[in-house]
Amino acid sequence: MTTLTLPTEQPAEDGGLFLASQSARPFLTTGCSLLDCQLGGGYAEDQIILLRGDTGSGKSLLAVEAGANFLAKYSQGKVHYLDREDAFDEGYVEALGIDAARFNRPKNLSTIEAVTSFVMEILYDLVARPKAKPVMVIIDSWDALTTAAELKRNLGDKTYGMEKAKLGQEFGRRVSAAMALSHVQFTLVVVSQIKLGSVPGSDVVVRKVSGGSWLKFFPTQVLDLKTKT
What we know:
This protein is of the alpha/beta class. The chain contains seven helices and nine strands, in the order βαββαβαβαβααββαβ. A hairpin with a 6-residue loop joins strand 7 and strand 8. The longest helix is centred in the last third of the chain and has 18 residues, at 162-179.
């Protein structure tokens, strides 16, 4: 029988006994030192980041700051801000010291299908050009996206609401698979709403995740924001 003896002292790397060194992983500052510490260094780059929370809790504010900090770190980087809720504040971006014109704000991306095609085209380009500059895509918000089928239906037509969840799962699988390629420098930030609901037969109020089940599985980091009551 072979006996495996594990070291009892902390190794020199900062990843602990079993994890890779955290110092080898690129992080992007959130703009808040305390939040950076809570996240282990900031936003994990080349990952999917979910900013979810109550209405008015600052989700879009953090998303805009993430883009500004990304551009401050990468002078040749690109940020695509998919502003479906008209939440982009040019004055605030300028106050952060970043030219708002550096944010690409594509129009006519109102469906999940269109957003999927847009994001995958960016990823295909990054795969084809290993030395391409880093890219960040911000979707604000996932809840505001519709589907091609929904646009074709008449108002009031019954639907079980499964098409958006299905397309979301496909989006998550395709994007995460492309991002897994080692040389792809691509960070995705998704903003999503938290909905308040009640437990049947009681007065208990619960916070329900909005945006589909794909947001429960694919993001590497999740910031859950709450308004103070």
